[in-house]
Amino acid sequence: MAVVSTPATLERAVPAMDNAEVLRIRNDFPVLDQLVNGQPLVYLDSGATSQNPLSVIEAEQEFYEQRNAAVHRGAHHLAVEATEAFEDARQTMADFIGADYVETIWTSNATEGLNLLSYALSNAGLWAAQGRGDQALKGLALKPGDEIVVTEMEHHANLIPWQELAFRTGATLRFIPIADDGSLRMDQAAAIIGPRTKVLAFTHASNVLGIINPVQELAALGHDAGALVVLDACQSAPHLPLDVKELDVDFAVFSGHKMLAPTGIGVLYGRQELLDILPPFLTGGSMITTVTMERAEYLPAPQRFEAGTQRISQAIALAAAANYLTETGLDRIHRWEADLGQRMVAGLEGIPGIRVLGPAAGKERIGLAAFDVEGVHAHDVGQFLDSRGIAVRVGHHCAQPLHRRLGLTATTRASAYLYNTTDDVDRFLEAVAGVRAYFRA
């Protein structure tokens, strides 16, 4: 049933990528063809922001050169073409995640999508109290005694909106703890998720631990309790085949800038029957049917949640990015990145004074590794690597509670993508091996 295949399954099912193919892929990414501090760039920070292939850059440029106009607002030729391109992009993204067209909402990023959802649930309580909207809203309204459940490994974007929703509604926020190896305590999850749980929100793949969570098992626990299940797919949508229907989640979010697209664009998926009864978050033009001086009536989803002038060129570019990933093959990308992740972890574990977070070598993970260097601050590690042309992320990676649980304040994170080679990983490992000696740690 699982959507995420094992490396052995992928090996039988799809042809493997290799360094020769990756080098051809790199030709599509002009930013990678440069020197940094006199060294060829090794970009290992795609977990934060990925690079853009020429096809994505050209798709956005072509929009501005040929059909720049407001969507859904004009009858002239350019407006019609812009609207068609914009809505074609929505269909592409719906197909990309196995959703229906009307279940795919444009946002600025995943953070906005999660805030949109948390505020819509707040408004559900207000509307229900005033007898406004569908009667089913009463079942979505949170109140004191209700519970919102997250996990201890969440990115701040999938934690703080739920903290604030609990504050606004009087609900209680609870979390599923992790074990020392970073895995979720599923035994405790079964005890925490219960009749009072109204929302269960969790990440598909951790941006720090690299661990892939058991989505269907968690979703089943949430639905058995009558809860809404919300998936943060920021670290999975760019790297794994994703089918929101098969995963059986009610909502999912991801950001374009982590999957070869520009910044300023993301997607919120929601089950149609839920989206059509949820109150809107932002209000204004483009999302209404009738407006008087006293009140307004709202369109159904997706326009219900897309007030104002839209992110048109970015949406078109995101669709081009999804097409690029689909044509390359997400199964193949996942397998290649999993191999790079294993190479990183095995190499890091062999360097004295290095502590790697998350699953040990040989255990399933996505293609990233966060680590601590004994006696050297993560920011110093990052600057040392940058001096050798290697780009990584340093800090708490917007996951302070997780770092605190692991006894750390900051780590260094290397994250690979489809344009990274085994030579990139080896250069990275060689540089990390010299960190402690350089700083005399």
Automatic annotation (TrEMBL):
Gene3D superfamilies: Aspartate Aminotransferase, domain 1, Type I PLP-dependent aspartate aminotransferase-like (Major domain). Its EC number is 2.8.1.7. Its cofactor is pyridoxal 5'-phosphate. Keywords: Lyase, Pyridoxal phosphate, Transferase. It catalyses: (sulfur carrier)-H + L-cysteine = (sulfur carrier)-SH + L-alanine. One of its GO terms (biological process) is cysteine metabolic process. CDD domains: SufS_like. It holds the Pfam family Aminotran_5. Residues 42-428 form the Aminotransferase class V domain. One of its GO terms (molecular function) is cysteine desulfurase activity. Catalyzes the removal of elemental sulfur and selenium atoms from L-cysteine, L-cystine, L-selenocysteine, and L-selenocystine to produce L-alanine. Belongs to the class-V pyridoxal-phosphate-dependent aminotransferase family. Csd subfamily. This is Cysteine desulfurase. The lineage of its organism: Bacteria, Bacillati, Actinomycetota, Actinomycetes, Micrococcales.
